[in-house]
From TrEMBL:
Keywords: Hydrolase. SUPFAM superfamilies: Thioesterase/thiol ester dehydrase-isomerase. InterPro entries: ACOT13 (IPR039298), HotDog_dom_sf (IPR029069), PAAI_dom (IPR003736), Thioestr_dom (IPR006683). One of its GO terms (molecular function) is fatty acyl-CoA hydrolase activity. Belongs to the thioesterase PaaI family. Residues 67-140 form the Thioesterase domain. This is Thioesterase superfamily protein. It comes from the Bacteria. The keyword Hydrolase applies.
Length: 151
């Protein structure tokens, strides 16, 4: 997807929960262009004002040396969820800071669902929270993130 124009990017099935169409289209386009996120297998499922829901199926490529999902993969999913939530404000953002608490292991072969939410929307920064749940609804990880608003 690297050298594709806006019109050439394949739009994926993402539920739009009331976002302005221009903001929604931009989020879809941005997420299609996130090469690392796409390489890992992160999928955006739903976006609405101030929130985003994403999923990732943990596979063998995501495993660490003890056979569970590597913390970097979990952090990537959280950053993607929180960043996508920040994008629902209509602003361009980049990650400034994030803190992750790992609470339970990601099991290889399972699907993790991440929820990102905007907690504070300022002129220069957007503060978010992210949570990852396992297939049974158990909390696997939580994070806070600060995103810099590009001018």
């Amino acid at each position: 997807m690297q050298n594709q124009s806006y019109d050439e990017v394949k739009f994926v099935e993402i539920k739009n929960d009331g976002l302005d169409r221009a903001v929604f289209d931009k989020i879809v386009w941005i997420n299609n262009k996130m090469n690392f996120q796409n390489h890992v297998g992160v999928e955006v499922k739903e976006v609405g004002k101030g929130y985003a829901i994403l999923q990732l199926k943990f596979n063998e490529e995501h495993a660490n040396t003890i056979g569970i999902a590597h913390g970097g993969v979990t952090a990537t999913l959280l950053d993607a969820a929180m960043g996508t939530a920040a994008f629902t404000t209509g602003k361009d953002v980049v990650t400034l800071e994030m803190k992750v608490n790992f609470l339970a292991p990601g099991k290889i072969g399972s699907v993790a669902t991440a929820e990102g939410r905007v907690l504070h929307y300022g002129n220069k920064t957007i503060v978010t929270e992210g949570k990852i749940f396992d297939e049974n609804g158990g909390l696997m990880a939580l994070a806070t993130g600060t995103y810099f608003v590009m001018k």
